[in-house]
Structure prediction request, 343 residues.
Amino acid sequence: MATGRRILAAPPGDGWLIISDRTVAADLPDTLATGVFVAEFALPLPDTATLLCEMSVQGAQEHGFSLFYQPEVGLMVRNRQGARLVRHLLPGRLPDSPGIARLTLGFDAQAHDWQMRLEMVEGPAIPARTARGADALPLRPGSIGALSSEPYRQRRHPALLWFGLAQGIVPPARVAWLGLRSPVQTPRGPVAAGRLRPGDLVMTKDDGPQPLLSLRRMALPACGSFAPILLRAPFLPTQHDLLVSSDQRVLMRGPEVEYLFGDDEVLVCAAALVDGRTALAEQRRMIAPSVALLFDRPQILNVDGCGLLAALPDDHPPRRCLLDYEAQMLMTQLGRGAGRRRA
Prediction:
């Protein structure tokens, strides 16, 4: 049913111009004056100068891009456009503990400013670090895309998990997704999520059959903060294993839910269910093709017998969403291990 809820304007896909190891689109702009570059890498890095990635083209159209770490100096992004070379530096040593770090470089060549931010996705809970400057250059999307092609791909450091480039000053908003083959219940029976189209009727838990308003087809990294979750049968009420995003909300019910929270049903992040049995972190692929289903308001869908929430990040969910520590309490009550830490 329509509720007058504002629908977030969004591109048809995931919002990224470039994602590492994904096919590069043919219609990319030559240069990007305002944008954001993101890279995630595994820690600890070697305690020596480490080149995470680099590409360069010589000649009349000389240009290049690299990400470099030197313990005594810090993280540095180098961007060359013709005769001009700029260095964006985030000073300081990286943590020595195991974990995953995310570097974000936002740049605006028209305003001549840039900002770098380093934060932990997994591992030690340390404050984010930032740096900024006033000498930003435009960036060539083709340079970033070339990092996934030979010979530059061979030069990438194994610690570099993924990288991406997008327009705008912040990374694209994340939307919970399903694997393309996930069987979504419709009035005519189960249909693979990837075969649905806007306008198709889908069965919802609260409102019966509802028309699919829109969908986003995405191809995102299957590692780092994007690592998907495999919900396993029969530990969840499904006939088959389901691949979902780590932030996909899963409906949980039963006497343990009522005992702990006083509700018949609650929603739990898929990442909080990871215990080596009920759910697994799935990282056997480089890219995870997926789809996000959107309705005129948040809906809980029947996906192979499992209730999964279809909603935008800022939507008010139709059930209570457990916090991480509450989800750990539930998993303990169910006799399962604690879930992994989420970013």
Q: What stands out?
A: Residues 1-11, 338-343 have pLDDT under 50 and may be disordered. Helices lie at 141-146, 152-155, 255-261, 324-333.
